[in-house]
Amino acid sequence: MKSSEEIFAILKEKFGDAVLQLNTKLPKEAVIEIAPLKVTEICWFLRDNEELQFDNLILLTGLDDDNGEKVKLEDGTTETKGGTLSVVYHLESMKLGNRIVLRTATGRENPEVETVSKVWACADWHEREAYDMFGIKFLNHPDLRRILMPYDWEAGYPLRKDYKNPEFYHGMKVPY
Amino acid sequence: MLKTEQMVLNMGPQHPSTHGVLRLELELEGEVIINVKPHLGYLHRCFEKHCEAMTYPQIIPYVDRLDYLASMNNEMGYAIAVERLLDIKVPERVEYIRIIMAELQRIASHMVAVGTYGIDIGAFTPFLYLFRDRERILTLFEKTCGARLLYNYIWVGGLSHDLPINFVNETRDFLKDFKKTVIEVNNLLSYNKIFIERTANVGVLPVDSAINYGITGPNLRASGLKWDIRRNDPYSIYDRFDFEIPVGEGKHGQVGDCWDRYFLRVQEMVQSIRIIEQALDQLPEGEITSALPKRIKPVEGQIYSRVENPKGELGFFIVSKGQLQPFRVKVRPPSFINLSVLGELCKGHLIADVVAILGSIDIVLGEVDR
Amino acid sequence: MGLLDTEFSDDNIVITKVDDLLNWARLSSLWQMSFGLACCAIEMMATSASHYDFDRFGVIPRPSPRQADIIIISGTVTLKMATRIKRLYEQMPDPKYIISMGSCSNSGGPYWEHGYHVLKGVDRVIPVDVYVPGCPPRPEALLEGLLTLQEKIRNESLVKKAV
Ligand code: SF4
């Protein structure tokens, strides 16, 4: 079993600037932060390297960091400007028992992250869900559509912190 | 010149054997399946949005409604995640009761899986037998906490009620009868010639592709890998019990076919009986409320914690910003991930096999769509 | 055979009102569209399985809406599903009845406040005859709902009553 520090050292040596930092400040989980446009490359390496063998993507999570500037609109609601959206990857090696957490942050206005759906097949639907809920675009994803919400949903991305629900959808009243 | 054309057939969302409101778009070449496109979201109930608006204890009823066939397991997974975030240790008795409940629920969930799978293939009787016995598990639950399906029983740091009088004896009685039912079901269904013809060598899932797709639970084990969170990443007190982890052996065909996946669930029910019996024997006296926190307000941090559900690995990723409500809760829903392999499994099979394959994956739409 | 045989063996005549005959026939064989939505569907399944036995009231699941008399909306209706439910309802032949089972389809249930994708009550798209409250309703509650519906059918008439 390798610790997050060791894996971070391996990655740092191989990818240099694309691996930003190791965050151990928060309790419970150490997080390795990486650059959003290098994700695919790093993940291929993590999966195929003999020492690491991260063959299982446990979970891929979209996250609204809610660190932008809050702008008050005329109707009393707020909207977030700037700030970041994140994607968190939980990886595990079933053979070696290693586990790490990766995180990458991307700007809220034009969120773009590279896809890992070629590396792990289950990432396909996870990424579609992150797109559906947060509007994060996964570059080179084979089939980036909404997955849970209706395909013609126009009111935005529901899990963003500043999401506002529409009054009507296809003539049906939405609020209680 | 003769030209062939592919046909697109729609299946669902109202279809008796899609196990809920799943819609499949089948591309066919004659009767052979070229491609399957699942369309989800017909039961998307906004679980993750609710979590951000509720306090930690208030989330438990919503957790129940994820995989509504295995509410106890869901609650246990969530409670353990929050307890790990808070560093709470719960009393011995609570641990034992939780395990008894979780394993009873695992049996109940597998009963539905096996029973409805029989219906999918065309055998109605096992369903009736299994639902008769499932009713007894529900009665046990009802005596304990007052609800039949969605319990809100396992709380962060404890339980809502202690066991009722005579629970131990009644559970023993049930297990005694249930052992007979398992044999009965095996005779009726598992070794039935028609059933084997329909399921053996259909929808074979090789182990490396299963791992790549993130498949967990019975479906992964049926492909031949001994991987069970109860053993590989133990939680609660599962390390104290003696039980086996069945894996698929390919008795009637290749390893990882529908029959293996089905039969694995039958074997798991037997193992759950063993765990419950041991837990009932060792059940200590004591109280159950001492570890219940007054107010749940974890410090800033994040945690991913997982348990073995009847359907696979259920994980909760909780991000806390030091408030009464979590900042973000993300579920790792086993059914959602297991379902993603459907297209791969169906390719090259006939239409009738889609039902057999879908049933053998055992999904619950409440969890797929959340 | 039994009692009825001997009673009616020699060309008896039964005199009844058309209304009563029709209502009796309708209410004793309500074929249900077999279709479940969410957690409540599990209780609906339990109701039709061995212990509670829906069959004894003449309720048999039919997979096709064209052959169904009654549709039990058992669970959360989402916006994506609502249009499909409406279409299923329109495909059923008259006379048709609807039981709304569970808080979710009555009014949104636990999802009434933050459910951005949940329809708050199925009666916003189709007309409901009987509401069965509960989350989930016990099988007995669903049976009670069915009996209430039968009672409602029993009092129907072909003739429009003057108000
Ligand atoms: S009313 Fe309750 S049990 Fe029924 S579908 Fe809604 S949440 Fe599930």
Describe this structure in words.
The complex is a heterotrimer of chains A (176), B (370) and C (163). Chain A has 176 residues and is of the alpha+beta class. In chain A, 19% of the residues lie in helices and 31% in strands. Chain A has helices at residues 4-15, 39-48, 123-134; strands spanning 19-23, 31-34, 56-64, 69-72, 78-81, 84-92, 99-107, 112-114, 137-139, 168-169, 172-173. A 5-stranded mixed beta sheet of chain A has the order 1-2-7-6-3. Chain A has a two-stranded antiparallel ribbon with strand order 4-5. A two-stranded parallel sheet of chain A has the order 8-9. Chain B has a single domain (47-335), classed as Cytochrome-c3 Hydrogenase, chain B (Orthogonal Bundle), CATH 1.10.645.10. Helix content of chain B is 48%, strand content 12%. Chain B has a 3-stranded antiparallel beta sheet. Chain B has a 3-stranded antiparallel beta sheet with strand order 6-7-8. Chain C starts with a helix and ends in a 9-residue tail after the last helix. Chain C is 37% helix and 12% strand. In chain C, helix 5 links the parallel strand 4 (97-101) and strand 5 (130-132). Chains in contact: A-B, A-C, B-C. Chains B and C meet through helix 1 and helix 5 of B and helix 3 and helix 4 of C.
List keywords for this structure.
heterotrimer; B: 370 residues; alpha+beta; Cytochrome-c3 Hydrogenase, chain B; three-stranded antiparallel β-sheet; 48% helix; C: 163 residues; alpha/beta; 6 helices; binds iron/sulfur cluster
Average pLDDT of chain B works out at: 87
Write the element-wise H/E pattern of chain B from the N-terminal end onward: EEEHHHHHEEHHHHHHEEEHHHH
User: What structural class do the secondary elements of chain B suggest?
Assistant: alpha+beta
| Shape designation of chain B | globular
What is the N-to-C succession of helices and strands of chain A?
Answer: HEEHEEEEEEHEEE
Mean pLDDT of chain A: 84
CATH fold label of chain A: Beta Polymerase, domain 2
Q: CATH H level of chain B: which superfamily?
A: Cytochrome-c3 Hydrogenase, chain B
CATH superfamily of chain A: NADH:ubiquinone oxidoreductase Nqo5 subunit
Low-confidence stretches of chain B: none
Largest sheet of chain A: 5 strands, mixed
- Given the structure, what is the number of helices of chain A? 3
Total helices of chain B: the number is 15
User: What level of helicity do the residues of chain A show?
Assistant: 10-25%
Largest sheet, spatial ordering of strands of chain A: 1-2-7-6-3
Shape of chain A: globular
Radius of gyration of chain A, CA atoms, in whole angstroms:
18 Å
